[in-house]
Amino acid sequence: MAKNVKFDLKDRKILHELDWNARLSNTEIGKRVGLSKKGVEYRIKKLERIGVIQGYYPVIDYLKLGYSTKRIMIKFKHINSETKKKIDDYVFNNKNFGWVVNFIGEYDIGFATRTKDSVMFLKEIKKFLIKFGKYIDTRVFEETIGMREYPLKFLLDKKSTNKLLLDNLNYKTYNLNKNEDKIIKSLIKNARLSLTEIGKQVNLSNSVVSKRMKSLYSNGVLIATRAKIDTKLLGKEAYKVFLDVDVDGHSYIEKIEDYIEQQIETAYIVDLVGKSDIDFEAYFSSHAEFLEFMEKLQNKFSDVIEKYSYMVFNKTLKIEYIPS
């Protein structure tokens, strides 16, 4: 049904606003896109109903809260639909797995743990391997040390200098108090809840919720709130790309990432210790468009880019920055 729905510029403008600040009021969105409050409310409900908007989540600096992220990518063997669903359900329901994606390509699934120590990470991975190890063909472990997020620039086909930065440099660990922890967990369920709705869930007054939210923002714990958007329904496929550079080309990595960052298609650049030198995610209308993008990238840095591989996102099952 959703494939037959027409998306006009007003819809895209609303998605653009919610993509970068899911807590904007309908009144404020209306001012920005040229619609009444009721007009915005109607369109948001429509976008939610047809599955374009699948929810709202907080972007939390998990590093500042003492968490580290380790990622595992897996290629399966001897697997059927029933077993695949069991694996999806298992990783989705595990509170320590904060990012879960099904892929088409080199790997079939990727998921990341958010833990405060390596012992917990090893414990969770061991449990997974005991349960599903016989279905694993290949696997790779990586550690994420930072990430850059960008708006979905393709929504309005405009470049943007906005970005969210998570890194493990020059920060002090922040300890959530009891009320802040409750508020964060409420936001993980639905980051668009009003202060009143959050207060009812966590049994706090509006003034306390407002004060603690301001503290979370000012201390850099709560960085943003975003809409979870099904880009496939907008005609865009998400690609994860792994770039390898020559041994002598590592001094060019920053220049390559700066170039990638400036492109309308780019959504994430992941800083990690793992299988590749550069890891980024981007959106394209077709595979031909993706190949054209990569050809331009390779031509610009042909002396240093050795090779690349990629995967297509099949389905994003989960986006959580700390255990819920």
Please describe the topology of this protein.
Layout: H1 9-20, H2 26-33, H3 37-49, E1 53-60, E2 68-76, H4 81-93, E3 97-105, E4 109-115, H5 118-132, E5 136-149, E6 164-167, H6 178-189, H7 195-202, H8 206-218, E7 222-229, E8 237-245, H9 253-261, E9 266-273, E10 278-284, H10 287-300, E11 305-319
Antiparallel strand pairs: 1-7, 2-4, 2-5, 3-4, 3-11, 5-6, 5-9, 8-10, 8-11, 9-10
Would you give an account of this structure?
- This protein is α+β, with helices and mostly antiparallel strands and about 325 residues long.
- The protein contains 10 helices and 11 strands.
- It folds into 2 domains: about 1-60 and about 170-230, Arc Repressor Mutant, subunit A, CATH 1.10.10.2890; about 60-165 and about 230-324, Alpha-Beta Plaits, CATH 3.30.70.3460.
- The chain is about 35% helix and about 30% strand.
- The strands form 2 sheets. It has an 8-stranded antiparallel β-barrel, surrounded by 4 helices. A two-stranded antiparallel sheet has the order 1-7.
- Helix 1 (about 10-20) crosses helix 2, helix 2 (about 25-35) crosses helix 3 and helix 7 (about 195-200) packs across helix 8 (about 205-220).
- The longest helix is centred in the middle third of the chain and has 15 residues, at about 120-130.
- About 30% of the residues are buried.
